[in-house]
UniProtKB/TrEMBL annotation, chain A:
One term under GO cellular component: mitochondrion
Protein name (database record): Aspartate aminotransferase
Enzymatic reactions: L-aspartate + 2-oxoglutarate = oxaloacetate + L-glutamate
EC number: 2.6.1.1
Aminotransferase class I/classII large domain: residues covered: 55-420
Subunit structure: Homodimer.
Miscellaneous section: In eukaryotes there are cytoplasmic, mitochondrial and chloroplastic isozymes.
Cited InterPro entries: Aminotransferase_I/II_large, Asp_trans, NHTrfase_class1_PyrdxlP-BS, PyrdxlP-dep_Trfase, PyrdxlP-dep_Trfase_major, PyrdxlP-dep_Trfase_small
UniProtKB/TrEMBL annotation, chain B:
Gene Ontology MF term list: L-aspartate:2-oxoglutarate aminotransferase activity; pyridoxal phosphate binding
Cellular component terms per the entry's GO annotation: mitochondrion
Quaternary structure, from the entry: Homodimer.
Domain of life: Eukaryota
Other comments on record: In eukaryotes there are cytoplasmic, mitochondrial and chloroplastic isozymes.
Family named by the database record: Belongs to the class-I pyridoxal-phosphate-dependent aminotransferase family.
Ranges for domain Aminotransferase class I/classII large: 32-398
Protein name: Aspartate aminotransferase
Any matching Pfam family: Aminotran_1_2
Length: 427, 406
């Protein structure tokens, strides 16, 4: 029991006299609160950090590492921060965030010369990275399309389920990953699109699907877009890896551009966590394409109404970094170069990992390692095999067998391949 | 080839009443305009202020190339959380020493309140929260969006322009046992009316006897009286009796970090075991909202709070801001007295913190805006932080005209 003499200001003395209510004997309101399960993704890094083994490898969370396994702060970001430091005005941003940042961000998704931007038809607000953008949309969907559901691919980033659940939007799933080929289950995906009630809401990964790395081809995207038109479905794109997938942001936005060409009024979540390395700054954008400027103004005002009781207005620093970089042609070019560098390194590691596994004489096919795209490789390993990797080899990844290629280096790819071979060779 | 939007029937949301004031102010081209709307500190020159100690912290951060920008843990920056809890609860707080406090970094005061409210909705057996009347305009929305039912308790007495202590006690006595009660830790927004320490003690006894759960909103620690400890007394009283409570902290005003969105939610529990479980559940609220909080503001605050010299320098700058506001109160009060404006204007110097609840009605406010280009919220609240010595005459002229002609 706390010593009352430790409490300053004489409060303890005042309290101990004439104090009839003994709160100490009262139990907590919270004794029935269960310890929550660890987040399946973020819990992996926690476990990795706690491990002292010298050969430990973290291929868990999707944060980029250089070939020395070190986190990277992009040069364009350092330069932007140098320019900002000492002169940053820390006043509140408007509820919708930094207009400058949002304008530059829309160009990335919709195109530098997008007619929709010119016609002011896009309702857009700064959001707390991709998570925040998705959550704002989910809340908006709940409020203005209360009878709707959200179709989510199987599998998807685990937090997607949490986001729409907490926004109280019922979820359905659609086929996506084909385990046998470790590729896209296109036929079943199209069936699900056709069988969903007209006007259903779908959440699509714009590029570099997380966790599988399996993306539709351009042709497949066109077919999906066509079917969406037939069914009058709503397409919500989560684009967390623009630039990171192929190395070229324009190419990575292809799916979105196809949908826009076909006349869809899409929603889109964008994140700068990975492609600008601004993970901890929580910078992103939610946009919704509307019929006209008037509608865009109305929708934006409603998005702000959702942000206000959640956090009032978004953080200024990360937005300032983004707008400083994107509005300066030299810095923007540097950024494009650095993004390509990151994407290229990952593509290189995919090649090495596959080569190593094949050279070890693995009986299993590993073509998918180089076919899949983006930060993640869906290895096809079972949870039990993953557990063996962790317990016997100190290799950390999520139990769905997802390998974050960003964590693979020239230094550890051999060890990783050997370990994977060991736990899979008898399957 | 535009399709028909599924959101075609959406109507435009009304302007936020507080932030809308600044929007209107910005549109006004009069050289005499005065913005007394949103509660952001202004210097004597009417300029925003970035604290010197904040600039120093920024320099340290930008020159430290070892610092990365990776994801913070869901609960935020650990150093920041520890220091924030100490700031509000006291560095020698037994609750902290006994590991009974679960602290999570959140997006300023708003974010801390929302995360706390969502947690209560999920895990607490009472879903009604009592908020004072009046209160900050965003409070009801925050709690309603979290799914809590919102009731009010009497707080402000227009007749005295002070605390309706009788009404407050009656309403809290009538509250269902176990209900949540929102308390402004100091510098009540919008009225500037705070209970005395004796009144706080009565409130504490009453609330504990009814098992009412205190949820403190501390947005002005250090800003009200100029002393960080004095401004935290209300919270510390409740923690000292060994009971449980929630406290939302904001660094927007007292460190001038408005746009960085930096704050903390602390929940004081009766045991370390419960605190651990509660922290794990708070993560489940945060993850689907924004995954993890923004790093920049947290790094600045942690740098300052954990450096003896910088902490001291901060307290000096903070006191200077508080003192300037107290001086503005005095000047405005003196001006009203000198003018002989009808009415008792002593509430201007009795009220505390950034705001003064003038007692002016919406018609008078509208008059002041259209005739004198004075911008304020229609409830008669003025932000003293937006006033400077050179503008006192203009404001007192406007108030005098409003009182005598409207």
């Amino acid at each position: 029991m706390a010593s009352r003499t430790a409490i300053s200001c004489g409060i303890a003395r005042r309290l101990s006299s004439g104090y009839g209510f003994a709160t100490r004997s009262m139990s907590s309101w919270w004794t029935d609160v269960e310890p929550a399960a660890k987040d399946p993704i973020l819990g992996v890094t926690e476990a990795f950090l706690a491990d002292t083994h010298p050969d430990k490898v973290n291929v868990g969370v999707g944060a980029y590492r250089d070939d020395d396994g070190k986190p990277v702060v992009l040069e364009c970001v350092r330069e932007a921060e140098r320019r900002i430091a000492g002169s940053e005005n820390m006043e509140y941003l408007p509820m919708g965030g930094s207009v400058k940042m949002v304008d530059e961000t829309l160009k990335l998704a919709y195109g530098e010369n997008s007619e929709f931007i010119k016609e002011k038809r896009i309702a857009a607000v700064q959001a707390l990275s991709g998570t925040g953008a998705c959550r704002l949309f989910a809340e908006f969907q709940k409020r203005f399309q209360p009878d709707s559901q959200i179709y989510i691919p199987i599998p998807t980033w685990s937090n997607h389920h949490n986001i729409w659940r907490d926004a109280q939007v019922p979820q359905r799933t659609f086929h996506y990953y084909h385990a046998e080929t470790r590729g896209l289950d296109f036929a079943s995906l199209m069936d699900d699109v056709k069988n969903a009630p007209n006007g259903s809401f779908f959440m699509l990964h714009a590029c570099a699907h997380n966790p599988t790395g399996v993306d539709p081809t351009e042709e497949q995207w066109r077919e999906i877009s066509y079917q969406f038109k037939v069914k009058n479905h709503f397409a919500f794109f989560d684009m967390a890896y623009q630039g990171f997938a192929s190395g070229d942001p324009e190419r990575d936005a292809k799916a979105i551009r196809i949908f826009l060409e076909d006349g869809h009024l899409i929603g889109c979540a964008q994140s700068y966590a990975k492609n600008m390395g601004l993970y901890g700054q929580r910078v992103g954008c939610l946009s919704i394409l509307c019929e006209d400027e008037l509608q865009a103004v109305a929708v934006k005002s409603q998005l702000q109404q959702i942000a206000r009781p959640m956090y009032s207005n978004p953080p200024v620093h990360g937005a300032l970094v983004v707008s400083t970089i994107l509005s300066d042609p030299t810095l923007k070019n540097l950024w494009l170069k650095e993004v390509k560098g990151m994407a290229d390194r990952i593509i290189g590691m995919r090649t090495k990992l596959r080569e190593n596994l094949e050279n070890l004489g693995s009986p299993l096919p590993w073509e998918h390692v180089t076919k899949q795209i983006g930060m993640f490789c869906y290895s096809g390993m079972t949870p039990e095999q993953v557990d063996r990797l962790t317990n016997e080899y100190h290799i950390y990844m999520t139990r769905n067998g997802r390998i974050s290629m960003a964590g693979v280096t020239t230094g550890n790819v051999g060890y990783l391949a050997k370990a994977i071979h060991e736990v899979t060779k008898s399957s | 080839m535009a399709s028909v939007s599924v959101f075609a029937n959406i109507s435009q949301a009304p302007e936020d009443p507080i932030l809308g004031v600044t929007v209107a102010y910005n549109k006004d081209s009069s050289p005499h305009k005065l913005n007394l709307g949103v509660g952001a500190y202004r210097t004597e020159e009417g300029k925003p202020l970035v604290l010197d100690v904040v600039r120093r912290a920024e320099k340290l951060l930008v020159s430290d190339i070892s610092l990365k920008k990776e994801y913070l843990p869901i609960t935020g920056l650990a150093d920041f959380n520890k220091s924030s809890a100490k700031l509000i609860l006291g560095s020698d707080s037994p609750a902290i020493q006994e590991n009974r406090v679960a602290t999570v970094q959140c997006l300023s005061g708003t974010g801390s309140l929302r995360v706390g409210a969502e947690f209560l909705k999920k895990h607490y057996n009472q879903h009604t929260i009592y908020i004072p009347s009046p209160t900050w305009g965003n409070h009801p929305k925050i709690f309603m969006m979290a799914g809590l039912s919102v009731k009010t308790y009497r707080y402000y007495d227009p007749a005295t322009r002070g605390l309706d202590f009788e009404g407050l006690q009656q309403d809290l006595s009538a509250a269902t046992s176990g209900s949540i009660v929102l308390l402004h830790a100091c510098a009540h927004n919008p009225t500037g009316v705070d209970p005395t320490l004796d009144q706080w003690e009565h409130i504490r006894k009453l609330m504990r006897s009814k098992g009412l759960l205190p949820f403190f909103d501390s947005a002005y620690q250090g800003f009200a009286s100029g002393s960080l400890d004095a401004d935290a007394q209300s919270v510390r009283m409740f923690v000292a009796d060994g009971g449980e409570c929630l406290a939302a902290q904001s660094y927007a005003k007292n460190m001038g970090l408005y746009g960085e969105r930096i704050g903390a939610l602390s929940i004081v529990l009766t045991s370390a075991d419960v605190a651990r479980k509660v922290e794990s559940q708070l993560k489940l609220v945060i993850r689907p909202m924004y995954s993890s909080p923004p790093i920049h503001g947290a790094s600045i605050v942690a740098t300052i709070l954990n450096d003896r010299e910088m902490y001291h320098d901060w307290t000096v700058e903070l006191k200077a801001m508080a003192d300037r506001i107290i001086s503005m109160r005095k000047q405005l009060y003196d001006a009203m007295c000198a003018k002989g404006t009808p009415g008792d204007w002593s509430h201007i110097i009795k009220q505390i913190g950034m705001f003064t609840f003038t007692g002016l009605n919406p018609e008078q406010v509208a008059f002041m805006t259209s005739e004198y280009h004075v911008y304020m919220t229609s409830d008669g609240r003025i932000s003293m932080a937006g006033l400077s010595s050179s503008k006192v005459t203009h404001l007192s002229d406007a108030m005098h005209a409003a009182v005598t002609r409207v």
